[in-house]
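User:
I would dearly like some help making sense of a protein record. Take your time, and here it is.
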Amino acid sequence: MVPREIISKAHFDIIHNYIIPKPEFQGRLITVNALGYKIVGCPVYIGDTKYQRNALMFNLCFVFGQSVDTSNHEPVVKKLASYLTQIELESGFLSSKKSQEHIPVFMEKVLHLLNKYGCCSIPVGESITVHLKVPVNIVEPLPVQDHAVPIIIRDRLMQHNEWDLTTQQVLPYIDGFNPTCRIAVEADVEINLVKSCLQNLLHYNIIKIIPVFQYSNMYTVTSDIKKLFSDVHLQEQCMHFVAIKGRTLPRLRDILTLYTSMTHGVTVKDLCCRYNPHGLKIDEKKLIQFGVVKNLIRVLRKFPIKVPSNIDPDPRLRSLYPMFDGLRCYDEICCKVGIGQADLEDRIENDPSVTVCVK
């Protein structure tokens, strides 16, 4: 077993009937959830009089955490079982006492290379090389909305001339503040092309979509905020990122105070008035960016809802009522109709037939 300490002999004795099952299960993938692990194997039964009991039974299993999705590794397990069967039939690699000492070395190589690179090519004997590769699930990114704000999260990007022409035009305007609609105008690129470009960058994990920055926004901390109390590397990252250019680094204590003061009913403007981030050497816009990207905080979005009322509608809002369905947030509405969030907020506050859901 590699590493040896993963499953004790006592625990293995409990589940061994599922690891080396009856011959009827040979060649079938078997997943065992037990002891806090998920064990995936493909048991093999080779009948031959040259073996003791006239058969060789083996099962090289992969061990995962209980909550891990193992669907990508299942074909790898099955392919490895086929390789080992072929190797055994040709050279007796598994049953020969001379070659059995090489099995742990082989297992260590498989473990190391698959964990690090997702693939491996390991020669076994003189004529066979085991080729394994964990397939990657290609998930289509969600459509990019007009009001979506992209921010680059990769430390290093390819050279400018290695991108396609649209990406070359769009990249300079991705700053974590410009929404998609503004990027299209600034880059002079048709908005649907910009959205396709951003989807591609999302797919390769080069950008992340964050909310539009507004001083009227409200945020709240997530459970990940505790990482900022204990992770020294994250603390260093945070202090350097949120510092005002040209000044010394802010104190971690002040950063934590600002983050933990974010809650329902407290806007970014309120925080600035109360704590004066610039006096603490903190750029409040960068503070919000870092918190959202690292999932330390999340925005509390406002969704207007038109409710039945006998009151005459506000003429300034009549055309917007169809969008007040509880599914569109302020950012989306403002982007579509071309008004500021403060203007929309003022109109809604003066209309008793519209209520706002914050979530």
